[in-house]
Amino acid sequence: MSALLEVLQLRKHFPIRGGLLNRQTATVRAVDDISFTVEAGETLGVVGESGCGKSTTARLAMHLITPDEGTIVFDGRTVGSSQMPLRDLRRQMQMVFQDSFASLNPRLTIEESIAFGPQVHGTPKAEARERARDLLAKVGLNPAQFIRRYPHELSGGQRQRVNIARALALRPRLVILDESVSALDKSVQAQVLNLLADLKEEFGLTYLFISHDLHVVQYMSDRVMVMYLGRIAEVGPVRALYENPLHPYTRGLLSAMPSLDPDKRTSAAPLIGDPPNPINPPSGCRFRTRCPHAEAVCAEKEPVLAAVGTERLAACHMVVAGSGHSKAAEVAA
Amino acid sequence: MNTPIKESLVEVRDLTVRFENNDAAIHAVNGVSFSLERGEVLGILGESGSGKSVTLKTLMRLLPARKTKLGGSMRVAGQDVMAMDARALTAYRGKVVSMIFQEPMLAFDPVFTIGQQIGEAVIKHEGLSKAEARKRALQMLERVQIPSAARRLDAYPHELSGGMRQRAMIALALACKPALLLADEPTTALDATVQIQILLLLRELQKELGMAVIFVTHDVGVAVEVSDRIAVMYAGRFIETGDIGALIRNPRHPYTQGLLAANVLPGTARGGRIEAIPGSPPNLASLPPGCAFAPRCRHVQERCRVTFPVATPVGAAHTVHCILSEAGALSAAL
Questions:
Q1: What is the ipTM metric for this complex?
Q2: Minimal Cβ distance to A49: which of B192, B221, B245
Q3: What is the chain B residue with the closest CA to A263?
Q4: Do B192 and A270 touch (CB under 8 A)?
Q5: B234 and B159, same structural domain?
Q6: Which residues of chain A does B195 touch, with a Cβ-Cβ cutoff of 8 Å?
Q7: B17 inside domain
Q8: E strand intervals along chain B
Q9: Residue B147 and residue B293 in one domain
Q10: pTM, full prediction
Q11: Where residue A333 falls among pLDDT bands split at 50, 70, 90?
């Protein structure tokens, strides 16, 4: 496998303005120097709590917002350079959002919405409409019944199917799914997850799958990236990460999932407190204020994302031998 | 029976709620009956539009009277809730029954401090003095484990983080020690690591105060964490009710089975398909006659489209409204 999307040292800080002269008073460090790759054909799941930067990461990758710093390389070509202007990127990379209604133009019919992208990119109108009808059938909506309808005439699940069809209309290679199934009822969510799996196989797609639902991410992903306050805490193959999390935050997040066995209810909360504000993240390791293993070194030095074995990465002093953390040796060993 | 029949804390019989518009009537609740003992926790599990929140709001009589048609009977702590006038309701809400919501920011008044709002409730219901009320408010904030509670007493709602606001709302709801707490998805908007803290807190307070709780959620995991008993709701009806263990391990209604499968339980094989229920929930303005799940059901028979099946017991404390179980009960009896 080769990397389809490479993100290098990506950073986005949002200024907060206020006061009499509207001067910058603070900075939200939404995404702070993160690097990762998405291999061709895989699904990379991204999990984290609100404010961890997972949606900002998605929007940066799509260039819907401009990064302050960092490089995005798609299929070996640097995005934004002459090798890959944004127009080309949008043809290769598409996104499906959480709010199925807000992401459709209320004045366009379903057919017009799906055909719009291809037409902008030079496909003749008739052909674009033909493609829209094909795609509607592929996402499980009868074209004859739906092409003339408007978004408000559809249910949430149907609208999200339309959004998926529209994302596929440009025949992209990478689709970013940002909480795309989160707003759907469970019974409908399951249908859409099945659909996403089918489409991935049929069109040879690569997914960046963002969700706060750990069960869904486990089901969908080949690899998982865990984010905390604008940084990557851990990356690894789904099975290894769920069975043997390396970062204490991943461990906390996984054990915070409600138990599904009435005889094995959770007896103690794995983490205390709320996630801190990304405006003033703690010094050193950002997780140290909630970490049961925090020591002096965690406040002084920010841990780097270090390789553990061949496939896993974790940003914790405990996984690096000689980092100064008292448990460093035993965990690394 | 020789022992005198003691009334349960909550007795709801054939509750119906209909919202009337100019052109359509929305049948939100269509004949819900249940009873709840003191100290018992009932989880109501359902998807959006199933009528679970409406059932809760009706118990609190929060729905606008002009556009809502109520039917059936509701008794809470021996009082007829249907017959209450405005004055009786004021005494009832907060004292006998309290409610917590998904969005604590909307439950608090933004221009008063947390301490003032908790204080107001105890002054109204228990006639405490201002100083005593402040003391009670502080106790409550400490009780819900808000760090540096004394300082938070004078904080405004917007100054608290999401998890802390939720704790403050629980403190407000429990300030007058109600016999029944209604919880409407109180953890849905919270992050996973905060959600479990709030669930554990609610469980602890419920035991300590011995109050009954009706907990509405769409999340099976959350329901399992807090409930003694679960009612699965679909199109305004309880279609299956049972003790938590029996219902989760041995769901009998095809909808419950599908809902549990659709929750992508851990261990769902990756790459395997999720057993999804086809179609989408029914339109409450034009419900089909008979079983509302029939159009989506794999096992549908002609009979399902005509009459809603009666409650069939399938275990000690487990009943289901489905003809499949009726047949099962019959063959077991033969």
A1: 0.86
A2: B192
A3: B245
A4: no
A5: no
A6: 256, 258
A7: yes
A8: 10-20, 25-36, 41-45, 68-76, 79-80, 97-100, 180-184, 212-217, 229-234, 237-243, 312-315, 318-320
A9: no
A10: 0.89
A11: very low
